[in-house]
Amino acid sequence: MVFVRAALSHAAILSLTSVHHWYGAVRFDTLWRGHVVHVAVWIGLAVGLLLATAWLTRGRRLERRVTLVLVILSVLACVVWLGLYEGGYNHLLKNVLHVGGLSPEAFRWAFPLPTYGPPEDWIFELTGVAQLPLGLLAGWAAISLWRHTPAGRTLEAE
Known about the structure:
Elements: H1 2-27, H2 35-56, H3 61-99, H4 104-110, H5 122-129, H6 131-147, H7 150-157
Helix pairs in contact: 1-2, 1-5, 1-6, 2-3, 3-5, 3-6
């Protein structure tokens, strides 16, 4: 079950991120946003290969090493980049400060043009904010997978 949870949570964040960035690229005529789709595909392939290898090597030393690489990739890509930075800073904080009445000068300082702009499209903003919990969920699932490996159980016992 822990493998399925890890696979589904990573698929969810990477799929949402791809849809969100492609939508933003088309909606705002900023095709540079589309590069994130390519990055998400490569991360997805890496996660899939790591999960498959961990599954096939259950109980062996290689499982621990592969799972550790998965945790590192997941924390860096899904938690830090997609969850905290994309979902948290780029969307949640931006929307809270905008709705909270931050002055236009301070808003432009924190979110400079042309990369950022005030919230204009609720689909773009909601899919952006949704990256935060999904990114955290993927990281949690990867760490849970690590805890189910022999190395993870050994570390918890110490």
